[in-house]
Amino acid sequence: MYHRLVGDGPFRTKQDPDKATSWAYYVAHLRAKYDMPVLLVAICRDRHTAIWAAGPFECAVGPWATQVTRPFVLGPNTLPEITDEATVIQQPALAALSAIVHSESRKIPAILKVLAHGWQSFDTDTTKYWFEVLEVGLENTPTRKKWRELMAVITNFPGRGLSLRRRIWRARPTARPKTSCVC
């Protein structure tokens, strides 16, 4: 059986009353268009926003509810802080999402360090994929800057790291450092 997964970016950092209406529309539209079950996922970095985003959001007249939207929420209160390398290696998607939703945590330096080390065990293409997922998820947060600084240090050792750094720079020319580098 096939399913549709709806993600509504950017990641939620505050309550937006208009989302209740737009989320209901997204779900109803995809359900009608594809005639398949739909799961709406809300990814939140803020605990209070995550609680709000879980809904339920009702479209009702009196006691009759025509539609009830209950997003599946990934947030600081539903995902653990991943701080062990074994989990990063076994569940890279969970680790990336955890870093995104906990990007405002006091433990974020440790979380990012574990991610960087764990992802080094993957082949270059897989590492690049998860690097990009995290880059997008962190948006323009201070944590994204910390992540880029950490990756500059981690990938700056002889051997494997240079290959990864070259591929990332080629794919994202705007991510190049301002200083010159002979790679």
List the defining traits of the structure above.
alpha/beta, elongated, 3-stranded parallel β-sheet, 183 residues, disordered N terminus, 50% helix
Provide an overview of this structure:
Helix 4 packs antiparallel against helix 5, helix 4 packs parallel to helix 6 and helix 5 runs parallel beside helix 7. The protein has 183 residues and is α/β, with parallel strands linked by helices. It has eight helices and five strands.
- What percent of residues are in strands? 5-15%
Report the sheet with the most strands, covering strand number, pairing sense and barrel closure.
3 strands, parallel
Number of helices: 8
Class of secondary structure makeup? alpha/beta
pLDDT < 50 runs, ≥5 residues: 1-6, 156-163, 175-183
Task: Please specify the SSE layout and strand pairing.
Elements: E1 4-7, H1 18-34, E2 38-43, H2 47-53, E3 57-61, E4 64-69, E5 72-74, H3 85-90, H4 92-101, H5 108-119, H6 124-138, H7 142-154, H8 160-171
Parallel strand pairs: 1-2, 2-5
Antiparallel strand pairs: 3-4
Helix pairs in contact: 4-5, 4-6, 5-7
